[in-house]
Amino acid sequence: MIQNYLKTAFRIFIRNKTFTAINVLGLSIGISASLIIFLIAHYEFSYDTSVPNADRVYRVVMNLKFNGDESHSAAVPGPLSQVLPQETTGLELTVPVMQFQGDATAKVSIQRDKTAEPLVLKKQTGIVFTNPQYFSLLPHQWLAGSPVSALKNPFTVVLTESRARQYFPTANLPDMLGKEIKYNEDFTATISGIVQDLNNTTSFEAVEFISFATIAQTHLQNNFMMQVWNDWMAYSQVYVKLAPHTKAANVEHQLALLLNKYNKDANKDKANTIRFYLQPLSDLHFNKEYVGFNQRVVPKSVLYGLFAVAGFLLLLACINFINLTTANAARRAKEIGIRKTMGSSRKQLIMQFLGETFLLTLLAALVSFCLAPALLKLFADFIPAGLQGQSLRQPYVFLFLFLLTVLVSFLSGLYPAFVLSGYQPIKVLKAQAFIRGNETKQVWIRKTLTISQFAIAQVFVVATLIVSKQINYALHTELGFNKEGIITFFLPRDTVTTHRQQLLNEINAIPAVELASTGFLAPMEDGPAFTHIAYSPKPEIKEPVQIRWGDPNYIHVFKIKLIAGRNILASDSIQEFLINATYAKLLGFQNPEDAIGQHLRFGEKKLPIVGVMQDFHEQSMHAAITPLVLGGNNGDIFHVRLKPNMAGNNNWQQAIRKIQKAYHQIYPDEDFDYKFVDEAVAHFYQTEQRTAHLLSWATGLSILISCLGLVGLVMYTVHSRTKEIGIRKILGASVNSIAAMLSQDFLKLVVLANILAWPLVWYGMYRWLQNFVYRIEISWYLFVLAGVAALLIALITVSFQAIKAAVANPVEALRSE
């Protein structure tokens, strides 16, 4: 029986090559999308699942409120990790994790042997300061050294095997113990242990662990603000593991008491509060509200959106299969009638048709599996780096494909199997099975499926247009400062003041350079830089404020406008402030001129306000403009505005090469790393740009599948109305009138699909736009544009088959009577 089913199936596939190819193509698209998204989801949801007792592991984070505006921080005050073990109960482990300031990298020098030159690595990543309990928290296997004593003393360091092999490629692991590593010319640490790398996906990506006790013995004590409770840095995090049966709420209550004890101004009123919160380890990888420094976060909403895209494409593929199969039903009607006459039961026919569907779906799954490596490269922007190198020959991949094949076979094949197996032998053999009156019960189902296809496609089209328009708005709207043609770069950590001024003079002398400045961060940077500043009328206004600083040319490089007062003067330390208009209003000055001459308390100093700047965006369009001050001070970040690129010339690259040459003349051993400010601004919207790219692909694929389904419905309709078309032609109907008659019904379906899709996509995109403080309005013409595009695509698709039927010889149509 099964052998007979297989022979019949293969004969049907070969006899209907076009239908088979279209079906396999449609199913392959849906299954490929599902496979790639499954691989991404499996990778992302596996984060931190290998940590022992992960349900008891938390990161201490903060929920803050400034003037009623809520914010969140993954960083905490430096001294918290030292106080927790002594003044709280219910904690099994307390693990601080700190990184070097700046870009969290360090210059590392390794003396491999006494005779050779030391190995110098200028920007090593993955280095943290932590305590011995770190290795009780994470399942590192020890290869050399003792987990109890390895990080107990200051100036000791533990390496992972991969980092140890990088530093000492030919040495045995035990022989590496006792070797010394110098960090940033600041201190030297002795290797006290080597552990195996974590092979599982995890948020803990450190590979080099310096003893936390080292901080107290170096100037890092001040850099990391280890005695400061009312300020914190992005590089300071604390993890805890609760004792069994301890509730997180109890520990959070104790944290609140600690905060009130050491920072009495933390909760001065309802509009200004700070509260510690225990973030579950399972939430770290998915919660964008608490993003640690260089931490990779993928919100679950993004993954759910990917699931929706895969589900829609798979649904479209199933609908497409159903329409094409029912369109081809007439060719198999006599086969079904004869089989029933010869004794086949309806159950046997259903099993045969489901088996054929399974074989087609299995073929599509094999095609998808073979295409997966190429698709992973094609969609590299969406694929996590750790996933790209993994093998697809994993048991869970084959299990997923098998289950998906069964599911798709059932969804795609069930309805056609019942329709085809339900034909009555007598009507089939008398050629009455496809008289139009006998098919009215199935027509509305096929039309409903077609409407669903184009409604889904329309959702993708409109969503793509709105997302693209919002990204374009974010990238090209007026930011309050100039970002075009400006590069920034850091000086080395050990910069000498005279060298800074010397380099600045040489850069300003380059003909293609319009102006250069030194200072702190550019106006718009990824990650805010807050400081505490007070204004002291009664009552005192003491709020965290964003800070920038630079020499007098800073505002000229970025073309930041002054709306009151004067520019800052040159100084080696902050002696006066410019403030933005938002801060002026917060301080109570409706007229910017009134703020000039007022004083702000900054640390122990009272410094004057000498000017008010026009507001500019210091963060992405997701966030509102916040209070900001700009102090007069030299800094270690250069900001260089280049003269406009002339047509046919490459003067920007020439200017950058000259800047690099001047840089290397002063710092011959340092790397010259620069970035364009406009590219840094665009990076703010990397997620949205990837979303737009993904939507563009989903739109194209959904339209392709929908058109394939529409072809199926047209073919079915043309076949069922062949004699009607022949009679109309004999009676004098023109080709145009017949083509229009066949097309108008399908265009009505597309119009109805648009009307049904528009409210859904409007609501979805309205909700998405709420993530932006500054956003576009959803314009009605986007819906009209998408609707017209859908109608044109549908018209082209339908017209080809309609004209083909209209020009056919009517004699051939009537001869089949």
Automatic annotation (TrEMBL):
The chain crosses the membrane at residues 21-43, 302-324, 349-376, 396-423, 694-718, 746-766, 778-800. It is a multi-pass membrane protein. The keyword Transmembrane helix applies. GO terms for molecular function: transmembrane transporter activity. GO terms for cellular component: plasma membrane. InterPro entries: ABC3_permease_C, MacB_PCD, Macrolide_Exporter_MacB. It is found in: Cell membrane. It comes from the Bacteria. Residues 20-255, 455-628 form the MacB-like periplasmic core domain. It holds the Pfam family MacB_PCD. Residues 308-424, 700-809 form the ABC3 transporter permease C-terminal domain. Keywords: Cell membrane, Membrane, Transmembrane, Transmembrane helix. This is Putative ABC transporter permease YknZ.
